[in-house]
Amino acid sequence: xxxxxxxxxxxxxxxxxxxxxxxxxxEPIIIDDLSNSNADVIDRLEEIxxxxxxxxxxxxxxxxxxxxxxxxxxxxxxxxxAAFKAVGESTKLPLKYYHNNVGSLLxxxxxxxxxxxxxxVFSSSCTVYGQADELPVTEETPRKDAESPYGNTKKICEDxxxxxxxxxxxxxxxxxxxxxxxxxxxSAKIGELPSGIPSNLVPFVTQVAxxxxxxxxxxxxxxxxxxxxxxxxYIHVVDLADAHVKALAFLEKQPVDSYEVFNVGTGNGxxxxxxxxxxxxxxxxKLNYQIGPRRPGDVxxxxxxxxxxxxxxxWYPKFTLEDSLRDSWxxxxxLRK
Length: 337
Ligand code: NAD
Ligand code: WQD
Fold this sequence. Notes:
This protein is α/β, with parallel strands linked by helices. The chain has a domain at 3-183 and 234-266 and 305-317: NAD(P)-binding Rossmann-like Domain (Rossmann fold, 3-Layer(aba) Sandwich), CATH 3.40.50.720. 41% of the residues lie in helices and 18% in strands. It is built from eleven helices and 13 strands. The chain has helices at residues 12-23, 40-49, 63-72, 87-92, 94-115, 149-166, 201-209, 237-252, 272-283, 307-313, 321-336; strands at 3-7, 27-32, 54-57, 75-80, 119-125, 172-178, 180-182, 216-219, 231-232, 234-236, 259-264, 270-271, 289-292. Helix 6 links the parallel strand 5 (119-125) and strand 6 (172-178). Helix 1 packs parallel to helix 2 and helix 5 (94-115) packs parallel to helix 6 (149-166). The longest helix is centred in the first third of the chain and has 22 residues, at 94-115. The radius of gyration is 19 Å and the shape is globular. The relative contact order is 0.15. Bound molecules: nicotinamide-adenine-dinucleotide and UDP-4-deoxy-4-formamido-beta-L-arabinopyranose. The site of UDP-4-deoxy-4-formamido-beta-L-arabinopyranose has 19 residues, from helix 7 and strand 8. Residues 85, 87, 125, 127, 151, 180, 199-201, 204, 216-219, 230, 232, 272, 295, 298 line the site of UDP-4-deoxy-4-formamido-beta-L-arabinopyranose.
């Protein structure tokens, strides 16, 4: 059974990926400092998979800890989720973001090269495209200047990976550019845990539905889109998790010193209003919402061209927007119990 180190494996996307890895016969080894997650996720993972996963509490930039893990487990790959991801906070505390997001990647790459661990899947983001000139965006669409220090860390990490692979270190790398992950595990045992006031749309919507917040403000309805609200490509987190399994399977067959980038989205764009109306419909409730001003820095519309991941990895999303919004709501309800 191949052992895969999952940095940030107690977090939102990492925990769902741990489940899909177990389902596909991999053995995930989790390292997480719990800076944005809870230790009980490991219990939840056991409830879902029937397996107690190896868990190391600590910083994935801690080389001593990484060496200890490598001494205890023969690792064949790494999926690097660990990062800070709050766009607004990154503009106030840019160095916190550069240290953690870029610094951790540097430590991991040294570690992998030294230990002969070949396979790396890196969490990148559609944020690297900014407002693209043409839609949908393909992996060849030029990246734009980042709108935030957070976004810049993803661009820099992609560049580091490309340069490192070009130096022939003997590793093979995939960057997955996630579009907008939403939803939760259908068991409602794991999901997203936003700290404080959510800045992302769907956690805000579920908190309003749960009565924790009064109303959703739609950030602008005068954009050049079908109903005037912004368009995004919302992808169910379990589908996204599955893309990591497919990425690892693909890497195994690749020559070393290769680097590939894949978009992970559904290929469809939905407006903010469509998300709200679909949420109301699938969950049979009314949501209190209002139209507010535009949010500075928002791109107007973006969705993925997914032909590359469909053809090369054989990956296709299985969940619909309806599924995602039902699972998000079930997760929110389970949290409030
Ligand atoms: P998350 O915050 O839920 O998970 C990240 C996990 O990493 C958390 O459990 C946190 O405690 C941990 N962590 C952070 N720094 C660490 C460190 N130095 N050492 C060990 N653990 C550390 O976030 P997520 O939504 O699951 O995102 C995972 C990755 O995907 C991140 O790299 C993020 O930038 C990227 N991404 C997320 C989205 C999104 O909308 N959620 C979109 C695109 C890309
Ligand atoms: C979605 C849409 C908002 C909240 C962010 C990061 C990006 C990536 C994904 C990591 C937008 C609108 C939102 C609200 C609203 N993360 N909205 N009212 O902005 O696409 O991307 O998460 O890499 O880097 O920037 O996601 O969920 O914040 O917004 O109207 O209260 O919902 O304007 O159109 P976004 P989001």
